[in-house]
Amino acid sequence: MKKMSFIGTGVMGSAIAKAACEGNDPADIVVTDYDKEKAKRFAEEHGACFAQSNAEAVRMSKYILIGVKPQVGESVLSEIGPVIKECIENGEEKVLVSIMVSVSIDTIKKWLGVDVDLPIIRTLPNVAASVGKCITLCTNSSLVSDEIFEEYKTILRCTGSFELLSEKKMYAGSVITGCGPAFVAMFIEALADGGVMTGLTRAQAQKFAIDTIIGTASLIEESGKHPEQLKDEVCSPGGSTIAGVVSLEKNGFRNAAVQCVLDTFKRVLDMGGVDEKDVV
């Protein structure tokens, strides 16, 4: 029995599968995808096993990670549900891991379409898993024991860190951890654009922006300082930094960031068919 099978090798699925291959014997990792050639290429590149079908992938491993988009989640789960039931009835242990945004554990159970005792770990990773810097939010069904959860985290330890939340909080958390990389990337690009306008080369401006953001985030994390305190410490009276801060405020920087989170949160809830009053 292999350790983990990946159904879906898109951007997110392949990032996690890559980290799984780095943290385990790649021969213990199985990949499959509707695009068979893509999954084969991944398997060959990373030394993983290739499964010809979703059913084969389910039969090969204890942990089955669903790495498809929510729009096709129902068809994939309804396909593998009977296979999972057959395996469990034959005495095999199976654990389902989902990375589908806004798809609740109850919905996953419904889409499987079978009556079976199956531990389900619902997760929200991000693309930083490919470099081991991801924070993965997790919520577990009642059948997920401490031992199962620890084994799951061990298999995917090279993705980064893990945070266990109630399912209610997964919707809000996904806005920061799942969508946040896009927002941060836009800020880096904007800083770099400004740097180019002041005479830096694109490579210089982008490197300076990236290094500054990494360094500042590390300082806040390690010092425990509130971001506002650090901002005030950098702003000398009548200096250049406070001029830039005032410019950001004048152009609605903080309000734009807050509204971005709120609008994304609403969209996440809409995708899951969830009422805000049920999760806030």
Q: Number of helix segments? A: 12
Shape: elongated
Biggest sheet features = 8 strands, mixed
Beta-strand percentage range: 5-15%
Strand neighbour order, sheet with most strands = 3-2-1-4-5-6-7-8
Distance between the first and last residues' Cα: 41 Å
CATH architectural name of the largest domain: 3-Layer(aba) Sandwich
CATH superfamily of the largest domain: NAD(P)-binding Rossmann-like Domain
How would you spell out the order of helices and strands?
A: EHEHEHEHEHEEHEHHHHHH
* Number of separate domains: 2
| Overall pLDDT level | 96
Structure report:
The structure is a single chain. Strand 5, helix 5 (105-112) and strand 6 (120-124) form a beta-alpha-beta unit. The protein has an 8-stranded mixed sheet with strand order 3-2-1-4-5-6-7-8, sandwiched between helices. With 280 residues, it is an alpha/beta fold. The longest helix has 22 residues, at 202-223. It has helices spanning 11-23, 36-46, 54-60, 70-89, 105-112, 146-155, 167-177, 180-197, 202-223, 227-234, 240-250, 253-272; strands at residues 2-7, 29-32, 49-50, 61-66, 95-98, 120-124, 134-140, 160-164. It folds into 2 domains: 2-171, Rossmann fold (3-Layer(aba) Sandwich), CATH 3.40.50; 180-272, ProC C-terminal domain-like fold. The chain has 12 helices and 8 strands.
